[in-house]
Amino acid sequence: MKITKIFSDENGESHFEEIEIPLINQGEIGFLSENIAVQKLQFRKVSAEYDYDFHCAPQKQYIVLLDGGVEIETSLGEVRKFQTGEILLVEDVSGKGHKTKNLEKKERTSLFIHL
Length: 115
Hints:
6-stranded mixed beta sheet; globular; 0% helix; 4-stranded antiparallel beta sheet
């Protein structure tokens, strides 16, 4: 399973990186990853006008987009769009951070899974 990681380098610049979560064939129940220890699960809803300027992640966390996409810009100006169902691993808890805005003018929900 591929996900996108957002992280900060030693100069505080944020970057995207594609990572692979290995899945193991478990027969009839499907393919599963190894267990990942988590600390908390948080539900989130943002307004249709959501457009958040540069910020760092409050903690290392997975973000699961449930019903709406986002556009994310790194501190170096790289922009990517992520759609409903995609998963991000956000690790830029220090540095210059990233910008985030809704792709559509509608409320959007997501899950934060704190690591």
